[in-house]
Amino acid sequence: MKTAIVTDSTAYIPKEVRDKWNIHMIPLHVIFGNEVYQEEVDLDWQQFYQMVKTNELPTTSQPPIGQFVELFERLSKDYDAVISIHLSSGISGTYQGAVTASTMVDGIKVFPFDSEISCMVQGFYALEAAEWASRGEEPEKILARLEELKKDARAYFMVDDLSHLQRGGRLSGAAAFIGSLLQVKPLLHFVDKVIVPFEKIRTRKKALKRIADLLGEDAKLGGHYQAVIIHANREEEANQWKAELEKLYPNVEFSIGYFGAVIGTHLGEGSMGMGWIKK
Fold first, then answer.
1. For residue range 173-224, what is the model confidence (pLDDT) as tens digits?
2. Contact (CB, 8 A) for 102 and 110
3. How many other C-beta atoms are found inside a 10 Å radius of the C-beta of residue 176?
4. Same domain, 7 and 85
5. What's the pTM value of the predicted model, to 2 decimals?
6. Do 171 and 87 reside in the same domain of the chain?
7. 174-178, long-range: CB within 8 Å, 24+ apart, which pairs?
8. How many helices (H) and strands (E) does the chain have?
9. Together in a domain, 144 and 199
10. InterPro entries per the record (predicted)?
11. Out of 3, 4, 166, 191, which could bridge 133 as a Cys pair, Cβ 3.0 to 4.6 Å?
12. Pick from 77, 63, 134, 133: which is nearest to 105 by CA?
């Protein structure tokens, strides 16, 4: 069976990597005033962080269902099935849009997959699925592999300012948590598909060390891990952190990712995080 792999723009897989693995991408939208941009198509992360310096913070929206239908119908000409991998259904309706669209197309079986996370950890699922699909594996077997990866997937991130998340309603229990903050760097993570506080830490340096220690707790158990350092317009800091971590954890393969326009709208510039899966 020939299976196509689809993900959305919040996986932030570079275009050359998507092209190499034949991963199809459906963009979420970023709205500055009356201008609508397709993330990762009309607007990359560098352009976004420049624009927010001189514009009001934008709003974001999920892809229209019609865009899903159009893509699935196009894929039906060359594929028997689609696995459509999306950011957590707890913070966006994108996954549900794929579910609805899957009932509206004929001639192809669509398997929507809720990553329950976002950014390049979501991208890891898409890349794994694409590798398995390239070998001709059945979609049910690929989905079982993704569920297996999900058991060991972790992601923690630090934000400089929680007001973006509070305003967008992406942080569960945000009001009470923000009320208790006194110049701390909160660590956040996903639990049951939504973003919740993990710990409150006093400084940025200590917050990043805490994330590294959490990776270390997993890495010392043995096995090979794939990790991504994710930054919101802090590329130099991310590269420095990567160099430090590579010395500490030789059994972890590190890469650099980013919080693009949609996720960056809700986290704010300066955020840093790391996610990993066990290979």
1. 554 455 445 567 788 999 999 988 899 888 889 999 999 999 999 999 999 9
2. yes
3. 8
4. yes
5. 0.92
6. no
7. none
8. 11, 13
9. no
10. DegV (IPR003797), DegV_C (IPR043168), DegV_domain_contain (IPR050270)
11. 3
12. 77
